Structure formats: C-alpha cells, structure tokens
Amino acid sequence: MTANDGGRIPVASDQDVVRVRQLVRTVAVAVKLSLVDQTKVVTAASELARNTLVYGGGGTVEVSRADNGRRAGVRIVFTDQGPGIADIDLAFTDGYTSGGGLGLGLSGARRLVDEFDIDTAVGQGTTITVTKWCR
Amino acid sequence: MDIGRQAVALGSHEVSRFAELLAQHEDALVTTWTDQVAATLRGRLSAAELHRQTAELHKGFRSALEGGATSLDAEAAGELRALLGDLSTSRARQGFTATETATSVYALKDAVLRILDDNGGADATTLRDYLGFSAFVDRAGLLTFDAYVRAREELISDQAEQLLELSTPVVKLWEGVVAVPLVGTLDSARAQVVMERLLQTLVDTGSPYAIIDITGVPAVDTQVAQHILKTVVAARLMGADCIISGIRPQIAQTIVALGIEFGDIATKSSLADALRHVLRLTGEAARRGGPREG
User: Fold this and answer.
1) What are the chain A neighbours of B249 within 8 Å (beta carbons)?
2) What stretch(es) of chain B map to CATH 1.10.490?
3) Shortest Cα distance from B250 to chain A (angstroms)?
4) Which of B74, B145, B160, B259 stands the most exposed, by the fewest C-beta atoms within 10 Å?
C-alpha cells in the first residue's frame, strides 16, 4: 500500500495533524478531486484531526480511497477514546466551543464534505467518518 | 537473567587477558577493524581519518579493559563512553546511518575473532572469553545508537528552530507598509513568532499598514484563521491597519463553507492588489493632509 491509497496515522501532537493533512491531500490528488474539493477535504480533515487531538485527547485517523461504483472519493475516519460529546446539537452550533476555538470546526467540517457520520457517547469516545466524492 | 548475564559477562581475568590481546595485536587489529569499517562506509570518510578514529577507539577499549572495566558502566570505561559519544555525534552530523555508525564498533568483534582464530585458540575458555567480550562490545554498540539518536534529535530541533526563524520574515514593502508573507503551516508556535515580529516591526518602522499574505499557506482552517484574526486585532490595537492578501479561489470557497468571517478586515486576492489598496488609502490621506510623498 502506497501513500496514494491512504493509511493510518496516530494523532498525538500538532505534527501529526500536519501529517494527516499531507496524507489526505496525497489521496485527494490521487483520486483526482478538483483543487477546490482537495482544499475543502484537507481543511475538514485538519479541523477534525485537531478535534481528535484537543478534545479527544489523541486518537487515530484512517485515510482511504472510497468507491461507490460510479465515483471515486476520499474517506477519512477519526477515532478517539476521549470523553465523547454530550450534546451533539450544541456541538454542531456555529460559534459554540467548549475550548478556545472559533466554534466552527465541527459544523464547518460537515459543510466541507459530502458525507458526515458521527458516532459518540459520553465516556465512550467519538468516531467521525467523512467522505468527499469526485464531481 | 542474572545467571545468564554472569555466564557471558567479563570477569576480571578475562578483562586483563583481553587488555593484553588488544595491546599485543594492536596493529593487526586496527588494520582489520579499519578495513571492515571502510567497506561499510564505502569511501565516504578518508582512509587516514578512519584509521585515526579506529586507533582512538582501540585505545579507548584498551584503556578501559586495562583499567579493569568489566562493564561499560564502570568508571574506567568513562573515556571510552565519551569517545563513543563523540564518534556517534560526528557520524550523525555527517549523515551516516545508525547501522553504519554502530558497525564502526561491532567490527571490532570480527577483528578480535580473526586474531583468536590465528592463534588457534578455539577451546571452551576462549569461547567463553569471547562471548563476554562480545557482550561488552554489544553494549558499546548500543551506546552509539543512543548517542546517534540523541545527536539526530538535536539536529532536527535545531533545524525546526532555524526554519521558524527563516519562514517568518517581515519585510518593508513601501514607505509605511510592511508585509508578512506566510509560507507553510501556521501552527500556534509560528503564529506567535509572526505576531511578535509584526508588532515589533510596526513599532520599529512606524508603519500604519501591514499586509499579511497567505499565498503560501496550503490550507486555512479555523485555527489558522483564528491566529490571523488575533494578529490583526493586535496590530489594530497598536494603530496599524491590516490587509489580508493571497486568498486563492479554493481558499475563499473553503473559508465560506467553514463559516469563518473576517468582518471588516480588508482582504485581497493578491499581494499586488493589497499594495495598490494601501497606496490608494495613503494617497488619499496625503492629498488631504498636504503634499504627496513618494
């Protein structure tokens, strides 16, 4: 498996967030996403990977190629064993942050990708799966 | 574990025997040793330099053993430890691999084995001695690994620091206009450096305008945006106006989708546009305030 096909990156520091970004960009280029879509998915990955690091206390990010038969795309799974999200609606409210950020990471990332799936429970950690398809 | 270690550790008798062996066969040992190392380094160090290093290491091992050092932690082995550390550091800085560095030490085992073979001493005692000595050299090799890794880590953190310095210049673009061309990832550490530099330059040059150019920033996420916004607010507090330039189409669309708002901060697609914008502002100010400058 080459970097073009994705991979798994443990996220424990800011450097790892940079590595996630680079890997996502590599895969996005390989599946021929447009420049705008590349930038969008890379930015979404950056937001979510940072959430994994800051709010989830670290975790892993898995980047892979996606294919639904008609279109190719990039799929990214963010997993952490952190405290989980108690109020999902609140967490997705623009401008709400439990940390010191702008409060746009989660909601903004959802707007940047085509598919967004979140699985979280208090004390159980959080898993977010996003997919960006080629147009 | 202890029993196993005792079985192969050097006793004081073996130590003196090996000290004698190292002394007796100095020339042959150093030559074989140097040849071995030279083969792995493939001419990237001069033969004379290599020979000098090997001879020094040989001396280090010899004086450690003569001092009665049964293990590498012994006081008598202090000089040897320092030698190994220096060797690893210089190898690491010259770009040799960890394997090549450790081989410089491990080659001693082969050289000693050859001497023992030549002396026809393949009895049980010799074997036991050799195992003990081999364990000693192994420890020395591991020490070079540690020192090697440490040297490389220092090198990397030095470079990271240099990069931080290099990649955040604040340049004077025009009379009263400074620019910060950002390149690469804008993390918290760099954002801090950028802000400090910019604010200091504003004071030093008395510039009322600053342009932050993000052409070289590959992705603008909320953290990057927040850092830029904070820098702009800080500059404003000091009476300077900031313009953000270098917003490419894909970045603009991403910023909109994320929902980041730059409020009343002027943004331009290119540095040239930003400069033109500032010059127009200063031009108007000059017309209002008296004779034009520049």
Assistant:
1) 36
2) 2-162
3) 4
4) B160
Number of domains in chain A: 1
- CATH top class, domain B171-289: alpha beta
Cα–Cα distance measured from residue A22 to residue A46, given in angstroms and rounded to the nearest whole number = 10
**H/E element, B39:** helix B26-41
Domain that holds residue A86: 3-132
| Chain B stretch 136-195, residues whose beta carbon is closer than 8 A to a beta carbon of chain A | 185, 187-188
Which of B254, B256, B260, B261 to mutate: most A Cβ within 10 Å?
Answer: B254
The C-alpha angle with vertex B183 and arms to B177 and B188, in degrees rounded to 5, equals 95
Compare all CA atoms of chain A with the CA of B160 and give the residue at the minimum distance: A15
Q: What is the CATH number of the domain that holds A7?
A: 3.30.565.10
Task: Identify the DSSP state of B120.
Answer: T
> Taking the domain B2-162, which CATH number applies?
1.10.490
- Percent share of chain B, pLDDT over 90: 22
Q: Does B263 touch chain A (CB under 8 A)?
A: no
Say what the ipTM of the complex is.
0.84
Residue type, A20: V
pLDDT at B285 over 80: no
